[in-house]
Structures are given as structure tokens and as C-alpha cells.
Amino acid sequence: MSGSNEPPAGGGPLEDALGAALADTVRGTGASTGGLYLIEDAEPVLRLVALCGLPVEFSAPWQRLPLTAPVPVADAIRDDRLVRIAGQDEMARRYPRAAAVLPYPFALTAVPLTGVRRPWGGLVLMWPAMRPRPLTPRERDHITSIARRMARLLDDATRPPVLPDQPHAVPVEAVHHPGQTRLAAADYLERLPEGALALDLEGRIVFATASAARLLGRSADRLLGTRPWQSLPWLDDPAYEDQYRTAVVSRAPVSFSALRPPDQHLTFQLYPDASGISVRVVPGGEGAEDPPAPAAARPARAAPTGRLYQLVHLAAALTETVTVRDLVSLIAHQILPAFGAQGLVLSSAEAGRLKITGHHGYPDDVIERLDALSLDTDLTPAGQVIASGTPAFFAHPAEMTASYPRAPRISGKQAWAFLPLIISGRPVGCCILSYDHPHPFTADERAVLTSLSGLIAQALDRARLYDAKHRLVGELQRALLPRALPRLPGLDVAARYMPAGHGTEVGGDFFDLLRLDDTTAAAVIGDVEGHSVAAAALMGQVRIAVHAHATAGAAPGEVLARTNRLLADLDSELLVSCLYVHLDLARHEASFASAGHVPPLLRHTGRPGGILEIEPGPLLGIATDSRYPVTTVPLLPGTTLALYTDGLVELPGTDAGRLTADLARHLDGADGRDLERLVDRLVRHTAPTGRHTDDITVLLLRAEDGPGGQP
Predict the structure, then answer these.
(1) Residues of 187-200 as b/e, b for ≥16 C-beta within 10 angstroms?
(2) Residue 630 has pLDDT above 90, yes or no
(3) Sequence-distant (≥ 6) Cβ neighbours of residue 459 within 8 angstroms
(4) Does the predicted model carry a pTM greater than 0.70?
(5) Which of 172, 343, 415, 549 is the most interior residue, by most CB within 10 Å?
(6) Radius of gyration of the chain from its Cα atoms, rounded to whole angstroms
(7) Which residues make Cβ contacts (< 8 Å) with residue 352, sequence separation at least 6?
(8) Max alpha carbon distance in the chain (Å)?
(9) Contact between 358 and 348 (Cβ < 8 Å)
(10) In sequence order, what are the beta bridge partners of 350?
(11) In 3D, which of 652, 619, 640, 627 has the Cα closest to residue 702?
(12) What is the Cα–Cα distance from 315 to 229, expressed in whole angstroms?
């Protein structure tokens, strides 16, 4: 899909049809709000392209979302299912980051737009707090059928949809009663002692009675077309704007009191619907909560509520970044668009130099020139910003040129925000946001960016520590596992090791293939209990013990028995499962001994395969005198053995036995000519999303025509 710098608009017949379908869906389902997300082609990011029932400015924190973000619409797309959030409590429990940005009572449904060849995006619908009941099966079918129709629109289009920089605001047409006359209604309102206002969904005043103007202390012509918190200084407070946001999102009546200087208390009662908000302005504070402190007692200018929510959203997102790559992606996809920036350079201070740890929106040759500059360079203010701990903002190249003449020529950017990254008084780096055009920085932008710099600094420090530990763990894991498997005539092999998708601890899975002589080999696979350095050390000792006993000529059961006695001598509290296989390629036989390991899978040529039943012995490390029975089976040319660890079949919420049987059927029916592709298919079959909570190891062995000839 393509991006666009055009103003929010339909963009063409396809965009208009999608917008119309969104509005029809909102009206037809009784939802108060609807949003349409599409996936960008360039990167796995969701772009909000159309919004119905809410002001576009409300959507700033979630206009662009990574497809991996912990939000309902991303989960719906990734899992290809409808996601339903019944209320605010469930949102806070399941999606705390989203709940922080939307602290209002509402229900939400997200559904994917899945096309014939690809997922296109997702549809989000929100209902007011007055509708807490769950969706009926008919309503669920109705919403999913709408999503399928929108996906077909995208499938059948002759061109990809245009993705606007800002979502297109789709109007929801209000229903008017034919017998109502506006003139009569206005006359009725003017005769009442209280005031009456009408606001559109953007918060602008579109109607005001004379009594409302009198109570508010401003003429009607100066009120119309403005937002109350903009035209009335004593309402310019985030607390009052938030009351309006609550009414718009929840579609529930809201009441609050405010003090009009010097001593006039007013009660505002907001009544929202799909077309806007009706407001009663009543003298006095009866029936309302005590009014907040007067604006004069607070700072002269607070940040707009939208910016505050944006800061909360970005702060919550920063706490969830794990690696430096995650941090750079978050800044590029969420912080840059939030502040209208196009470029990012993230530098760390290392040994007196500026080491670039991440960037976005710059050509590679520019990054090469900027990387590893001295902290006292005159090519960029970054070093001075780190030394002083004070952010620097340059709204125009002339401002930069005055102190750093060569800087604008290097990057070609037109405006910059240099943010020092300081933790406990210690400089760790600098975050640079840059703009393709001159950009004046408002006071609240500077304040929010300065606040964000501290959060970015903490996230960068955590990410660098994580990356360093992860590299160390990876190097240790690679040292403990075989670098390459030996090739034997008559035996084709393929292996995969996939560490758990979380944490930085070393896994306990191990495997090996040993060449014993020209016609025999030994395969071993196992799993040490836990994820820790102790588990990794024990795994290395078990591998060495198995290798020593196997190459000394011990029988399969004796290999495990001797290894078990070694574990007893080591006095380890960890247990080990292990499967040892002796392969006689001349006699076409395989002999198995198991120490409590999951059973292997067998695939024959021309006849059904399945789970190979092997009599297991106890786990290694339980008792010193344990015996391990041996099971021998034919290993004819074309036979494939699948050895694996329990991470492949023991998934949360599933039955391991049923999943193992399903995996055996999948192995039996798959194309087995290429073992490398086959091992990948087996892993994807049980972990299609690539996310798994335990290590996964798979070792495939296929007997071929070898030195022993045909059986």
C-alpha cells in the first residue's frame, strides 16, 4: 500500500466505498464509534485510515500502531479472530496500555479484514457504556460478514488504497424528525432562564442561546465555531476538556461545575449522541460536584488533554520495549508521527564518541558520516547537549547554521530537536528528532519532548543491558550445541533449535548426532529442567557424558544408565529427559532408549506412520540404579524419524497427546523430499505465529540407500 501527503479525504472510489461501509456499519450495529485500520506494505504497521463518530485529534495516540502492539485490533488481525472487550475493567486487565489512553466506560469489538491472499487490516467498533451486554451470535455474524465485504472491496480493487497521513473523518448522519422546526425549538430555548449550547463531535459550538452567552460572559458570535476551552479562558483546563472527551467516547451524560471569575458558579450538563452534544448551562452548583480550583490558581497554560493522553500512551509503550531495535521501532512509528517529525538518530555516548545505535529516515551514507563522531564535534550539537544535559531545539536551518554551519548540509533536514538522555545524572546518549521542513516548536511540544527524553533514556539503558545479556546467552547457547551435524552415507539429517520467545536465560534443550563408524551412528536429544546457567552447565555435562559412553561402544540402555549415575555423582537438583537412538545403517535397524522423553514420530514410505511406542525409563537424575529398556525397530530406506522436545507439543491450553497425534498425521502427509523444508513445516504447524513459551528442538533423520545397500 502507498502512503500520501494529501489532506484527509476520501482519496478515490475505493476510499469512498470503504468510508461509506464504515459509516453504514456504525449505524447498522448501533455503535458510537468506528475505525478502519489498514496494514502498510513497507513495514508491519497498522494505519488508521478512516474514523467515524470521534474527532480525528482524539486518535493521535493510535493512528499508527505496530502489528505486534498489545491492542485488540492487532490481536484480531494476527490471530484472525473477533476480539470482544465487554467494558473498561476488561480493557484494563487485558490491554492496560490502551486502557491508559482511553479511561472511559465503553465496549469494543475488533475484527480482521482477511482477504483471499492476505490480511488487509482490521475494523474497530465501540459502544457506549449503556450497552454492557455481550454480542449475540447474530450480531457477531453480522459484524464478521461486514468485515468480509470490506476485505472483498480491497481484494477486487484495481489499485492499492491510499493511506493518508491523517485518518479521513467519516460523518455519521444524524436522524432529524420531520415535524421539528428549528425556529420553534430556538424560540423555546430562548425563553428558558438556563443556557443551551450545541457542540459538534469536534467540540466546536454550533448553537448558543442568548441566555447561554450571558451566563458565559461572551457574545454568541464570539462563541460560535470555537471550542469552549479555547474561547473562555476560565475553562482552559485539561479537567474540563476531559469531561467533553468522556461524553464523546462513552456517549453517557456528564455533569460538572466550573467557576466563572470572579464568583459565578455554573453547572454544565452534557448530553451526547451520534451527531454531537447538547449542553445545559445552569447558574449555581446545585446537583454537581464541588468545582475545581479556579484557573487563576493553576499554571497559566496546561498542556492540552490530547497531548497529555498522548504522553501517557507513549510512556506506557516505552515501558514495554525490550531491545534497542524495539525502541527504535517505537520511536519511528509512534513518537515521530505524534510530533510530525520524519527523522530519528539515537546515539549513545561510548568512550568519548557518539555511537549511533538506531536511526530512521536517513540515507546510509549520512549515518556513516555521523557515526562515531567525537563528543566535541562541531558537526552536530549532540555532544554539547549530552554534556550540558539541556535539550536544544532548532526550528530552521538558519538557527542551526549560526552555531553549527556544516550540520544542515550533512543531513538536509530543516528542523531538529536534540534531547539529552540522562539517567541519575549520568549521560547515556542523545535522541534527535528531525524534520524535512522548518518546524516551530510550541511550548507544550518542548515540555512533552523533554519529559519523553527521560523515559527514552531509561528505555535505552534497559534495552542495551538486555541486548548485551541476550548476546552473551546466545554465544553460550551456540557453544553448548553442535556447530554442524556430521554427514553419513545412507543418512539425511536436518535440525532446528528455537529458544523460548521470552527472557534471556539459557535454554536446556540439547541434541547431537555422533558418527560411530562407517555404518553406525548415534542420535541424542534431551531437555534439562528449567532455564538458567545451571541448566546450561548440566546440559553440557550430559552431552559430554553421552558422547563419551556412546563412542566407547556402550549399548543404548547402558549409555543412559551410566549418564544417570554421573548426574547422581554431581548431586544436581535438576532432572533431565533424554532419548538416545543407535542407528545401524548396514542392518537397517534403530535401537531406542528413553529417559522419560516424549516419544519419537515415525514415517514410512508407502505405508502409514505414527507415534513410535517406546518403553521409557525414569528421568535422568532420579535414582542411581535406574534401568533403561531398549526398543529396536526396522529402519528401511525412506523411513523418517522425528525426534523433538516437549516444547513442540506442550502448549498452554492444549492437550499434548492430541497435539502429538496431530503432528504425527501432519508428518505422515507432508512432502518429505526436502528435510530442511519439512522441519520448518513441523515447527510452523504447532507454532504458526512464531511465538512459543518453551524451547523447541527438532531433529529429523531419514534412512537412504547407504553402504549396506537395499534391505
Answers:
(1) eebeeeebbbbbbe
(2) yes
(3) 318, 319, 321, 327
(4) no
(5) 415
(6) 33
(7) 374, 375
(8) 106
(9) no
(10) 353
(11) 640
(12) 26
d(CA 429, CA 431): 7
| Residues 64, 196: Cα–Cα separation, whole Å | 38
Q: Work out whether the CA dihedral 528, 534, 539, 542 comes out positive or negative.
A: negative
CA-based end-to-end distance of the chain: 57
Cβ-count burial of 69 within 10 angstroms (0-12 exposed, 13-18 middle, 19+ buried)?
buried
Cα separation, 386 vs 34, in Å, equals 44
At 452, the amino acid letter reads L
At residue 472, the 3 state secondary structure works out as: helix
Average pLDDT over residues 308-316: 65
Mean pLDDT of the chain: 82
Residue in the block written with cell 549520512: 366
Give the single-character DSSP code of 290.
P
Place of cell 534471556: 504
Under 8 Å between Cβ of 372 and 355 = yes
Assign 634 to helix, strand or coil. strand
Contacts of residue 492, Cβ cutoff 8 Å, sequence gap at least 6: 675, 701, 702, 704
- Cα separation, 150 vs 579, in Å, equals 51
- Greater confidence (290 vs 422) lies with 422
Q: Long-range contacts for 191-194 (Cβ within 8 Å, ≥24 apart)?
A: 193/283, 194/280, 194/281, 194/282, 194/283
Q: Which residue has the cell 538506531?
A: 358
Q: What is the DSSP letter of 130?
A: T
Q: How confident is the model at residue 360 (pLDDT cuts 50, 70, 90)?
A: very high
Unique residue bearing C-alpha cell 468545582: 291
| Residues 521 and 588: beta-carbon distance below 8 Å | no
Taking a C-beta distance cutoff of 8 angstroms, is the pair 431, 453 a contact? yes
CB 325 within 8 A of CB 353: no
Classify 143 as helix, strand or coil: helix
- Alpha-helix runs per DSSP H in 481-639: 533-551, 556-570
311 or 519, greater pLDDT = 519
Where does the pLDDT of residue 599 fall: very low under 50, low under 70, confident under 90, or very high at 90 and above? very high
Q: How far is CA 28 from CA 15, 143, 146, 173, 178, in A?
A: 20, 10, 10, 12, 21
Grid-cell match 447498522, residue found: 28
Residue 136 CB neighbour total at 10 angstroms: 9
Cβ neighbours of residue 604 under 8 Å, at least 6 residues apart? Answer: 636, 638, 639
